[in-house]
Each structure stands twice: as C-alpha cells, then as structure tokens.
Amino acid sequence: MNKKIGFTCAYTPVPLIEAAGFSPFRIFPETKAPDQSGHLLHDNLCPHVKKVLDRALADDLPDLEGMVFINSCDAMRRLADAWHDARPNDKIALLDLPSGVNSLSLNFLSKEYERLAKMLFEWNDTDFSEEIIKDKINTWNHLAGVVKEIEGTMSNGYFPGYASGLQHIINTVATDLTNTALLMAQEYAQPKALASKGRVPVYIFGNLLFDPKVYDLFEDYNIHVTASDFCTSSRFITPIDSKADENIFTSMAISYLSQTPCARTMDTTLPGSIAQRIVEQAKMSHAKGVIGFTLKFCDPYLARIPMIRQALQKESIPFLMLEGDCTTGSMGQQQTRIEAFTEMLGV
C-alpha cells in the first residue's frame, strides 16, 4: 500500500501526489477528538483549521509520510505553523497561493507546483518523471469527465441519494486513489432508478460541505440539490488542461486558477466574478433558489456574501445564508429555516 500524503486544500494537485508514488489523504474536519487546538491557536478561528489540528493532536490520523499545506488564508498558514508542534516528525510542504489571477500569478503558481512535484519525488526517493505526472493527469481528467456527467444528471432530474453518492465518490478520490474513485464513478454515472418528483431544486455553495449524510438531510428537508460548489465537492476535481501550455506546471496553474475560485482568490479585473459565477451556475442547474453554507469565522466568504446576495436579488433568485461549524449537528439546527425556505419556493 502506498504511503499517504496529507493535505487540506482543493488547490493541492492530487496527480502530483500519485505520480510520486504516494496516496492522497485529505484531512477532513470530522473527529470526536477533544478540543485541544486552543493550546496552539486562537479559539476564534475557522473550525475547519481547528478540527484538523485536533485530529493531529489526538493522533486521529493514519500514518503520513508528509503534509502539503496551501497558504490560502491566514488561518491555514497558522495551521501549518502549529503542525510542527503537533506532529514534529512529519515532512511539511507549504505552497503560497496567489490571491489574484493574472500572468504573474500563473507564473508564480506554476513554479510552486513544480517545487512541490520535485519535493514529493524526493520524499519517496524516486526519480522525477514528467511522463508519470502526465499519465496521472490523464486518469484524473477521465474522472473529472465522469463527475461532470453525473452533475449533468443531477441538474436534470431528482434521483434520491444521488447527491450523497457523488459526494462519497469525491471523498474517495480525496482519501484513496483516483483509479478507485474512477471505477466508482463509472458504475454510478447512470442512475439505477427513474427520476422522482416532489423536491424543490436548489443550488448550494460555500467553503466546506463534505459529509454525504448532509446531502441526505437536504432531501429530508424537501430539497433536490441540482448542483453544488464547495472546495470539498466537484470543484476539487478540477480537470487539468495539459494543452494549455507546453510547460505541464503552467498548464496546471492555469487550470486551477481558472476554476470557480475560492472566496480568498479574486480576479482583480472582475472583482464581482464570484457572485456572477454563482448566478450563472444556479441558472444552468435549473435551481429555483440558492443556499450558501459557510463556516464560522471564515472572513473571505463572509466578505463576499453581500455582493453574492445583491447579484442573486438582481436576478430574482431567492437566497438563504447559513453558517456552521463542520458538524452535521449544526446543519440540523438550521432545519426550520431550510424548510421555511423550500416552502417559500414551492415545487
């Protein structure tokens, strides 16, 4: 079995981890470990970061050869610092992520990805090979294509349990191997039953929503999730256009920075692009309403919500904003608001 490389961000290129001979292991903030992160970090921090650190402090992790951190926000940078104390024997790679999208950003990120690739091959005492990287990218892109097909099916009809099944596939590629998730996706692409009626079509977005059971909860609350955009949903499986540039790492940077951006990334030429993308994706998925779900203390997302709300209002698309702490229980506490929202939308 391949040794595992831990990571915490959707901007981490899984094909590089697999090309170096490792298995990826995304550390989800799901744990029964005691709350100990306050010993190393401030209590009023993103619950994602705190729960991941709780897992490290409680040794609630598999054996890891190393960790890849993306400097996507200050809280994640603080997690990388705290990791040295929590798990001093882990190798650590910290990549800086540009906050803007331009030619300088692409050039910088491509060099960061190249640095990561060489570091990972060195960690496994393996000769660096661009051909192996390209082969892993091809498999990754195949998976991305099948996931897109599944998403199209979700947008066009309600199939009970289909959204949670897709999330299970995405979690598999994050914590296992791409080939394993690809086999699951190929088997899952065609629903086993006919489409049902009686659920309100809703588009959901935010930073993290990784538990498949949450999607089943949405169905219990009379919602048909037509599409979603989270760093733990299909945005994580970003296809890599290897023809975008003759340098494979530049192609990778172009692909990741061209995806629906995390709220901490901004196209300075189009500062409202995140709001416009949400409007477009909601329309494309035939949603009658939009639900935003963000984590407490996530300043980048909370800062973007007013412009998102305004863009949706302009298109007369109803919007519900929720906030939680990475637990299914926090979603359950929102049940009354969600059901009232769906009643307003009607079927």
What would you say about this model in short?
By secondary structure, this protein is α/β, with parallel strands linked by helices. 48% of the residues lie in helices and 14% in strands.
Question: Could you walk me through the main structural features you see in this protein, from its secondary elements to its overall organization?
Answer:
The protein has two domains: 4-129, Rossmann fold; 132-345, Rossmann fold (3-Layer(aba) Sandwich). 48% of the residues lie in helices and 14% in strands. The chain contains 13 helices and eight strands. It has helices at residues 14-19, 47-57, 74-86, 103-123, 130-156, 162-175, 178-188, 212-220, 248-258, 273-284, 299-314, 328-332, 335-345, and strands at 4-7, 23-26, 64-71, 91-96, 200-206, 223-229, 289-295, 319-324. The strands form two sheets. A four-stranded parallel sheet has the order 2-1-3-4, with helices on both faces. A four-stranded parallel sheet has the order 6-5-7-8, with helices on both faces.
List the helices and strands and how they pair.
Blueprint: E1 4-7, H1 14-19, E2 23-26, H2 47-57, E3 64-71, H3 74-86, E4 91-96, H4 103-123, H5 130-156, H6 162-175, H7 178-188, E5 200-206, H8 212-220, E6 223-229, H9 248-258, H10 273-284, E7 289-295, H11 299-314, E8 319-324, H12 328-332, H13 335-345
Parallel strand pairs: 1-2, 1-3, 3-4, 5-6, 5-7, 7-8
Give keywords:
347 residues; Rossmann fold; 4-stranded parallel β-sheet
Q: Roughly what fraction of the amino acids lie in strands?
A: 5-15%
- What is the CA–CA distance across the termini? 48 Å
Mean pLDDT: 89
Gyration radius, to the nearest Å?
20 Å
The name of the CATH topology of the largest domain is: Rossmann fold
Helix-strand topology string: EHEHEHEHHHHEHEHHEHEHH
Number of helices: 13
Q: How many distinct folded domains?
A: 2
- What is the 3D form? globular
Oligomeric category: single chain
Query: Under the CATH scheme, which class of the largest domain?
Result: Alpha Beta
Proportion of residues in helical segments: 40-55%
Low-confidence region ranges: none
**Could you say what the CATH architecture of the largest domain is?**
3-Layer(aba) Sandwich
Question: What is the strand tally?
Answer: 8
